[in-house]
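[job 0412] stage=complex_fold ligand=oxalic acid status=START
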Amino acid sequence: MNAAQTRATIVVSIPNAAKIEWWIAQLAPLLPGWTLRPVDDPGDPDAVSYAVVWRPADGTFTPFPNLKAIVSLGAGIDHVLADRELPSGVPIIRTVGTDLTQRMREYVALHVLRHHREMPAIAANQRRQRWAQQVVPPATRRRVGVMGLGNLGGAAARTLAGLGFETLGWARTQREIEGVITYAGESEFAAFLQRCEILVCLLPLTPATENLLDAALFARLPRGASLINAGRGPHLVEDDLLAALASGQLSHATLDVFRQEPLPEAHPFWRHQQITVTPHVASLIDPESGSRIVAANIREFEAHGEVADLADAARGY
Ligand code: NDP
Ligand code: OXD
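[job 0412] stage=complex_fold status=DONE, emitting C-alpha cells
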C-alpha cells in the first residue's frame, strides 16, 4: 500500500447517528477509492484526510493529525468554529450550491410576501370569522432589506427585486446587485435600517453579528416593521424581540433558527400570536444533491488544494 492509499479515509460526524450512515451511503459511490467511516469508528486516525461534519462535538478533530480539510455540511461554519479544540490552519469547506440557494429564495419570497400581504392578520381574522378587507401597497412601494449579501442573501435580494419590491441590502463590504440599493458596514447601517419595513437576516454568525437583532436595531426600523431571521438563533436577543412585539415597534417575526434547537416545547415563541416558527428548514441540505457537492469539493481540493467555497476562519464565515 502506498502513502497516498494510507491517507484515504473520510470521517463523517453528525449528531444523529442514523444520518451518518445515510450520508456515508450517499457519499461512498461518489468517492471511489476512499473509505468512509463514522467519526466514532475512524480506523487508523493517521489515515483520516477529510472530516464531513454538522455540529461536531468539541475535540472531534483532535485525533486526526493528517486532516487536509473539514467539510461543513452547510453554508454556515459557526458550528465548526464553535469547537474549542479546533486545530488551527485546517481549511474549512462550505457546502453551498444551487439547490440550497433555490430553497432559501423560496423561503424568503414566501415569508416576505406573507408579511407584505399581511397574512398573519388575515389568518387571525379568519379564526374569528371576521371579514376585514384592507388594501395593501403594491410590492413596488414596500421596502424590504436583506442583511448579508453572500450566496444566500444576494440570491434572496435578487428574488425580491424580481418580485418588484424596493429591495435594500447590507453587507460588510460594498456589494453591487442589479435592482438592489446596497449599503455597507457600520457607518451605513442606520441609513439601511430606517428604510426596512420588512427585514430579512441572512448573516453568518460571527462575534460581530451575534446579538445584532436587539432592541437598538428594532428601534431604528420603521414602526410596525416585520422581521425574518433565517441566519442563526444567536443573532437574535429573544427578550428584545418579545418587548418590540409587545410595544408595536415590530408587528410580526418569522424565525427559522433559534439559540436552542430543537426549540424547547415550553419556549414562549411557539405560542406567540405574532411569531411564526419554522424548524430550521429555510434551506435544509438535501443529502442527494448535497453529497454530490461535498464529493465534488473533496475531489477538487484533493486535486488542486483549493475550492471556490473555502471559508475564511479568521473572518468567521
Ligand atoms: P456568505 O458567506 O456567502 O455571505 C455572508 C454575507 O454576510 C456576506 O455578504 C458578508 O459581507 C455579510 N456579513 C458578514 N459579516 C458581516 C458583518 N459583520 N456586517 C455586515 N455584513 C456581514 O454566506 P451565505 O449567504 O452562504 O450564508 C449566510 C448564512 O445563512 C450562513 O452563515 C448560515 O448562518 C445561514 N444559513 C441558514 C440556513 C437555514 O436553513 N436557515 C441555510 C443555510 C445558511 P461581505 O459580502 O462584505 O463579505
Ligand atoms: C446551513 C444551515 O448553514 O442549514 O447550511 O443552516
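Confidence is low (pLDDT under 50) at residues 1-6.
[job 0412] exit 0
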